[in-house]
Amino acid sequence: MSGVVCFGELLIRLSAPGRALLTQAPMLELHVGGAEANVAIALACLGHPARMVSAVADNPLGRRALEFLRANGVDCDAVLVRPGRMGLYFHSPGAGLRPAQILYDRAGSVFATASPDSFDWERALAGAERLHVSGVTAAVAAGPAQAAARAACAAQARGIALSFDCNYRASLWAHRDAQPRSVLTPLIEPADVLFADHRDASVLLGRAFPGEKPQERRAAALALFAAFPDLRLIASTLRRVDSADCHRIAARIDTREGDFETAETALSGVVERIGAGDAFAAGVLHALAAEADPRRIAQSGLALACLKHFLPGDASTLTEAELRSACTGGLDVRR
Length: 335
Description:
By secondary structure, the chain is α/β, with parallel strands linked by helices. The chain has 12 helices and 15 strands. A hairpin with an 8-residue loop joins strand 7 and strand 8. Helix 1 crosses helix 10, helix 8 packs parallel to helix 9 and helix 11 crosses helix 12. It starts with a strand and ends in an 8-residue tail after the last helix. The C terminus is likely disordered.
């Protein structure tokens, strides 16, 4: 991969420490996050050139976000720095049978209010082999959605591959005066890789798709392939939550020719679920860059997603050697 460009909002996350509720916490822990930024960081740590395109506030929070990305090897030269506020989100960790909760505070952020004309895609996409965008960006506000559409068109015109993660966030779309299907469809049409499951297919195609059985999941994927002729690969995860600390997760890859679904991996003692989907996307793109087969692509995505559950914060910062060790079962202490 010559380079991957990720477009989306950089966020500041404020979390209650331990297992406290936000209303109980006397202090909050600060992390840097954002769906596309998480993918950029994970890929950079796996050894890929990664560039972030975004807009951050010209204040200490914006500088903190940029410092975190740069410290993990992400090129931030295409990130705009403007007066205004950072997008925030607040996190109450889950415990036992109590699920985690997220409260967004993103309205009016520098990114949400940035003009689509602000981004120089000729410069931002220079030397790139892939552009990665997610549905979160389209859900934030009309301006970022328009900017994402322009980015997708610019990538297509330059022969740059596009990957799109549906990342459906109902709480964000509830505040948008737009239907997800009409906004997301033009963004997905030029994509060759789509991160979506049967629920996303229901949103995108306007009809219900069950997903309890493998053949039902295959039917949803085939419907997406029929609707989007440029797609060549669809990646998804299947998650069963027994408690906040115990999850079971599997990965699935669909191509036009066939499909592969891994066995479930049981995760106990989960530290952090947030960002696991972004780690999965990075693991898939990492293997795809090496032209791996669907089985290896699924295993790579699943391994990085599973490992992310045991890292605090939003992003995976694991190296390629650590990912390879996990794929081969290297769980003992390293000395």
